[in-house]
Amino acid sequence: MSEQRNLILAIVLSVAIILGFQYFYEIPRMQQAQQQASEGEAVTDVERPVPATVPGSTEVPSAAGPAIETMLLEKVLERSPRLPLDNGRLFGSMALESGRLDDILLADYRESIEPDAPNIRLLRPAGLPDSYFAEFGWVAAAEDVALPDASTLWRSDRQRLDRDDPVELVWDNGSGLTFKRRISVDADYMFTLTREVENNGTEPVTLYPYALVSRWGTPETLGYFILHEGPIGVLGDVLNEINYDDLVEAGKVSLESRGGWLGFTDKYWLVALVPDQESEISATFRYSAPGGKARYQADFVGRPVTVPPGGRVSVTDRIFVGAKEVNLLDKYSEELGIPLFDRAVDFGWFYFLTKPMFKILHYFYTLTGNYGVAILILTLLIRAVLYPLANKSYRAMSKMKQLQPEMMKIRERFGDDKARMNQELMALYKREKVNPMSGCLPIIVQIPIFFSLYKVLFVSIEMRHAPFFGWIRDLSAPDPTSIFNLFGLIPWDPPSFLQIGALPILMGVTMWLQQKLNPQPADPVQARVMMMLPIMFTFLFASFPAGLVLYWTWTNILSIAQQWLIMRQMGVSASPAKS
Fold this sequence. Notes:
Distance between the termini: 19 Å
CATH class of the largest domain: Mainly Beta
Largest sheet: 9 strands, antiparallel
Helix content: 25-40%
Radius of gyration: 30 Å
Shape: elongated
């Protein structure tokens, strides 16, 4: 097999892998098909980790349009007295009736790149089709103990929850037990909640602390094989990623752990319970469908504590509600001892490459203030690391180009005898000390680097809505322009398969130029395949994140410059050889 065939095989293999990840392994988007209960039907909105009777219920109305949903949200928020909260990065409120954390928006993130787009809302109160809230409480060993529940009205010592300024909620059960909650939030996304029980009665009381995150309805996910969205947790020092459909089938997944964390992850957002890292817990992921409405829940219950007469006990837990910012997750992991907290970001199988690549990219961003420029600098760094390998490869390819006239003569002489032709070619390579496979090595080495950068651009929120220059306003999204409407000059929106932007076209042109510097295939069929590759890659990369296309284009430009310089040093013509 000739060197060109090996090169084509390497390229086709890379294309096949890219297509496999992008299309063939793409799981179809989950479709919400929830049976709606009839008007007036009441359902229990959480399932306590330990069986208990739960007074109070919430009616979950059917889905509605955005305007109606907004009105419905406002009505639900008005049902209960609420405690406003704002730490600069989070804002919203928590319900004083039930004491749930159920109304949280992110100040730094919006639903689109438009400056007036709505802020991302993470938590929603019970009573909505997509309710999403956290609850902390107690379950008693005895059935006759009055405990705070969904209908409990807590008394607050403050009018507002601000950063590093705790609020204390108090409720007396009227039977000798006083329940207190001290809630604080830091400058980012971590809440700390200390629950205290004071026993003013005459008998000891045994209680189990629990915490849960309840999520109603099956969330719409991107459905990519390379991205996990759904129940997640590190329990027993093991990362557990559970798909929604798998949880529906299993009904319940129970795990024992010392410390750890668990909750729900979306592509960019995370809501995670973080128990005391020295506590033994029983953690559970659950699915149920009360009234035909899908309900997912992540919860844990701690070991029992006994409150003696005249005594008090307290437990402290945390909950993360926010964006999966890598450096922030690392900070929490280090300061609070939360194991593998950064794994909430799905860096995937190439974690050993993807995480360091993100760190380097983010460092260059801190220097330049632009992730696009950071990608260009990172590409230069990668090219510098691969320079010896690429240099050897380009010298071999230049030598191959010098030998192309002799290779053509061998082909003409032994064209009817393939075995003899390959034998003569191999003899030529050996005589001239040329390795035809060396030209494939840079491509093979770049495949894991390519996918690692793809993962960084795809999963890290730092790339979300990150602009470059000009028309590239979001490096995590495809180039928004299209040659088929003259890049916006014609008032027409082409279909997605015709969305071939300026940046992918530039990438295709640089790929074509690079081909012109390489030895031309002796086989006409191989030559035609090689000519088609820039066009194929242009259409393929048109749907990729603009940051990835920028990386590949800049890599091509640097490769062309390096290869041209080597060819000039070796006295090899840069023009294609005549066949």
